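Lecture notes, unit on protein representations.

Consider one protein chain, 163 amino acids long.
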Amino acid sequence: MATQLKNLSDFSHTTIPNASPYKFAIAVAEWNAEVTGSLYKGALDKLLMHGVDESNILSVSVPGSFELTSAAELILNKHPYLDAVICLGCIIQGETRHFDFICDAVAHGLTQVGIKHNKPVIFGVLTTNDQQQAIDRAGGKHGNKGDEAAITAIKMADLAATI
């Protein structure tokens, strides 16, 4: 596995733009709260670290990852001035195909919201085989996907502003 010995949240190889001119929303799923809370903290901390004023961050929670698509749509309809929406969730494989349907729906749904609104909608949703893999990617040995989602949002907001 490519991630076995690797912290995926290492940004030393890339330049991260100053994020102070941008406004963001973070939508976070309440399901698997131990994991999603860590993702949220990582994303929020990274935005603040890179110059985003706390007043320029809208945070909302939704029941589960499936609801992230609706949340992103509602957020961008009501707050079209936002530069990007970061969506954070955690879907853990179970014994049924429910996992496949939810992962697919969320990925496609967030993509469609981004295209419709011409705004970056960031997929910060863990799709893991078990709880330990999720913990490892939410501040554990493989870094924090919340950090990665925030950096992606900053870079995409900057791209949209400068392209």
